[in-house]
Design goal:
The protein is 0% helix and 61% strand. The chain is built from no helices and nine strands. Strands 1, 2, 3, 4, 5, 6, 7, 8 and 9 form a nine-stranded antiparallel sheet that branches.
Length: 127
């Protein structure tokens, strides 16, 4: 038996990014995951990451090459038992023509978790 469900979510968020010392960067943000349809709890999403950029922006395929460690805490606003913490080591690089590649390995560090182990791969266009 296979079951599928449609879940609609809205996630307003605020974020920041700062090159605070040389090529070191810090980013973070707060967001609120709000289920519109399909059930679930309202969830506060807190993020903080630190990284270091190793190359200049115009280096072919490896421009702005940055390694980072990101921490994401998801806290249910309806049930405080379901707080999850995930650490994600990852990389980001500028491929050229405002295209970026990002990869990471989200690693849950709490028993309560959003997902199991898995890789993140993104191709992103900056506008």
């Amino acid at each position: 038996l296979i079951s599928t469900a449609l879940v609609l979510l809205m996630t307003p968020a605020l974020g920041f990014w700062n090159n605070f010392a040389g090529r070191f960067v810090i980013r973070g943000g707060l967001g609120l995951l709000i289920p519109i349809q399909g059930g679930g709890d309202d969830t506060l999403i807190s993020q903080l990451a630190i990284g270091q950029t190793l190359t200049d922006h115009d280096v072919p395929l490896f421009g702005d090459f940055t390694y980072y460690l990101s921490t994401v805490v998801n806290t249910s606003l309806n049930n405080s038992i379901n707080t999850s913490v995930t650490l994600t080591p990852g990389i980001r690089t500028h491929l050229g023509n405002d295209w970026y590649f990002l990869a990471g390995l989200p690693t849950p560090v709490t028993n309560s978790r959003v997902a199991d182990f898995g890789m993140i791969f993104w191709f992103m266009k900056a506008w």
